[in-house]
Design brief:
single chain
Length: 675
């Protein structure tokens, strides 16, 4: 077995690989850019080597720099993680020439299957059903429009070397095909150093389901079930689960056997993923093969008990697989939510900055990859991350912060465990998608398992603006808030140094105002908790060990309720199940007077184009004096490797332009002003 390996990556995947290597007694070497000097993967590794400036195309994807780090440290093997150089055949070739093992598939398999155009041709030759499309390379935007018309809209414009949602656009007409071609080409060049583009038919209402395969160099191969990855935004997966609630055993077997056959056809040896789109009749079509470890691999590990990173290392060491297809048993259900540094209230635009608070829910200590999850109890919580409290989210890399996973014997139990885990996850200092993830976990379509890849687009067409809790849930929150406020008031009465004749009394009657509702309540406390009685005569029993100052409250109020707690004047900011609530707790007289207070209105920014996130202006498409129409492109902002086209919301005339290509802007900086 190898004594020391280098991880040619960063962030959570580098940390994940280090954990398995450590378990196997293998020393690890991290590489890092200027931006990652204090990163978690650098702290976890046994050694670390600096490889250059923050941009990935000057550090993490520069093969010569990675090879220099390999020579300096004398490692015997390299794990590439995902992204960066993980599917780069030239990197695998350089390692082979240097006599260093690549913890991944052979160079020939990467070339054959890592390139989307080549892999589709191979799949067609092997009689695998594929999506209609144009397999050749496309030279310019005019040719892209011509081909798109021949295939028929809608079409998917994709980077041949792409992955992780980068370099991908859906076009519904000629204008979008032209714009999408150029943006995809730019993103592909920046992210992968390869700007080749191809186009295929976009199948409407599909499900995205993928098969995990594991092969060795001795001709053995198995499939480890499937992953449902249909909940995506901008072709970037957000929620994954295993198994799929849609597949039956016959379809699973057919997809699995086809995936293994395809892998063997190209001499595949390592962990890999074959992706399919599946229609409502369970017809499946080969999409692509990812010749690397997938981001969402933890859910497969949770339902199979197989440590995929360990298996990759063993295969790279020349060992045969020790498991057969008969040994693969799918146990229970696993769900993964990707926590992104993206602000859902700003249409999921990237957010950067310092993590002033980062407290994930407690992981189940009894569980480690390579064990059957059931051995750890009825539920498992796992958080794969590469950040820590006080660390910074950089503008240079992918915005994923962590992958929160839960496992339970049933799908319903795994979903409920995820709801609690999300409510318990404390993140402050940046915008993040925790509220949105909570909303998805409660969405009826997700609960039924009827989602398609259009789920987010269809269910949140105007973006995400928070959750409106049902009245029954609001009453639970109101009862908890009343009991908590009473506790806080009692503490305030005990503050020393009060003025004479200013004694503070804690009453029993309160009015709790939240989300447009006013609940008049009466709180009766005892040693075990409080009973909160509402005007309609209903009562709720509240029990909790929360004390003022705690930022997380676990309350028993007609069941388990987890609240993130912040202080505001006269109440709390409470966050739970995707809702962000300003909760005011007042005496009846205070509540009466509060209704007479004028509402403070936000400033009018309707005649301005504000920068929605920290980013770099790529280009400005208008000039002073131009009359713009609704939907017209105004400028392009690049952030976290993604180009974002900002469009006019209504007809207007440009009066002033405050930024130019190359300018770096902060959130809410004014880019353009209108008459």
């Amino acid at each position: 077995m190898f004594d020391k390996i280098l991880i040619a990556n960063r962030g959570e995947i580098a940390c994940r690989v280090i954990k398995s290597a450590r378990k196997m007694g293998i020393k690890t070497v991290a590489i890092y850019s200027d931006a990652d000097k204090q990163a978690l993967h650098v702290q976890m590794a046994d050694e670390a080597v600096h490889i250059g400036p923050p941009p990935a195309n000057q550090s993490y994807i520069v093969i010569d720099k990675v090879m220099d780090a390999i020579k300096k440290t004398g490692v015997q093997a390299v794990h590439p993680g995902y992204g960066f150089l993980s599917e780069n055949a030239k990197f695998a070739e350089a390692l082979e020439a240097a006599g260093v093992a690549f913890i991944g598939p052979p160079k020939g398999a990467i070339e054959a299957m890592g390139d989307k155009i080549t892999s589709k041709k191979i799949a067609q030759d092997a009689n695998v059903s594929t999506v209609p499309g144009y397999m050749g390379l496309i030279e310019d935007a005019d040719e892209a429009v011509k081909i798109s018309n021949e295939i028929g809209y809608p079409v998917m414009i994709k980077a041949s070397a792409g992955g992780g949602g980068k370099g991908m656009r859906i076009a519904w007409n000629d204008e979008e095909a032209r714009e999408g071609f150029q943006s995809s080409k730019n993103e592909a060049a920046n992210s992968f150093g390869d700007d080749r583009i191809f186009i295929e038919k976009f199948v409407t209402q599909p499900r995205h389901i993928e098969i995990q395969v594991l092969c060795d160099a001795h001709g053995n191969g198995v499939y480890l079930g499937e992953r449902e990855c249909s909940i995506q935004r901008r072709n970037q997966k957000v929620v994954e689960e295993a198994p799929s609630p849609f597949l039956d055993e016959a379809t699973r077997k057919a997809m699995g056997e086809q995936s293994v056959a395809l892998a063997k056809a190209v001499g595949y040896a390592s962990a890999g993923t074959v992706e399919f789109i599946v229609d409502g009749d369970k017809n499946f079509y080969f999409l692509e093969m990812n010749t690397r470890l997938q981001v969402e691999h933890p859910v497969t590990e949770l339902i199979t008990g197989v440590d995929l990173v360990e298996q990759m290392i063993r295969v790279a060491n020349g060992e045969p697989l020790t498991i057969t297809q008969e040994d693969v048993k799918l146990q229970g259900w696993a769900i993964e939510n990707r926590l992104y540094a993206e602000d859902p209230y700003r249409n999921f635009l990237p957010s950067i900055g310092r993590l002033t608070r980062y407290r994930p829910p407690a992981e189940t200590k009894a569980y480690t990859p390579g064990t059957q999850p059931g051995d750890a109890g009825d539920e498992v919580v796992r958080n794969d991350t590469g950040v820590y409290e006080g660390g910074e989210i950089s503008m240079y890399y992918d915005p994923m912060i962590a992958k929160l996973c839960t496992w339970a014997p049933t799908r319903d139990a795994a979903i409920e465990a995820m709801r609690v885990a999300l409510d318990s996850f404390e993140v402050e200092g940046i915008g993040h998608n925790l509220p949105f993830l909570s909303a998805v976990m409660d969405h009826p379509i997700f609960i039924k398992g009827d989602m398609t890849t259009a789920f987010i687009e269809e269910q949140y067409p105007e973006g995400f603006d928070g959750v409106e809790l049902p009245e029954a849930q609001l009453k639970r929150v109101a009862a908890a808030a009343a009991a908590m406020y009473r506790v806080a008031e009692i503490r305030r009465t005990r503050v020393s140094g009060r003025m004479d004749n200013h004694e503070r009394r804690v009453g029993k009657k309160w009015v709790v105002s939240l989300q447009g509702h006013d609940f008049a309540v009466k709180v009766k406390a005892d040693k075990e908790g409080s009973t909160v009685k509402f005007e309609d005569g209903s009562k709720l029993r509240v029990a909790s060990d929360w004390t003022p100052g705690d930022q997380l409250a676990e309350v028993d109020v007609d069941g388990r309720l987890v609240l993130k707690v912040g202080k505001i004047s006269g109440g709390f900011r409470l966050r739970t199940r995707g809702a962000d609530l300003k909760v005011h707790v007042r005496t009846p007289r205070q509540a009466e007077l509060a209704k007479l207070m004028p509402e403070k209105l936000p400033p009018d920014t309707s005649k301005m184009l504000l920068c929605p996130m920290p980013g770099l202006i790529v280009n400005v498409d208008v000039e002073v004096g131009d009359e713009v129409q609704e939907g017209q492109a105004l400028c392009t902002v690049e952030a976290m490797k993604m180009e974002n086209i900002l469009r006019a919301e209504k007809k207007a005339v440009v009066s002033k332009i405050n930024a130019a290509a190359g300018d770096s802007l902060a959130v809410d900086d004014v880019i353009i002003e209108f008459e």
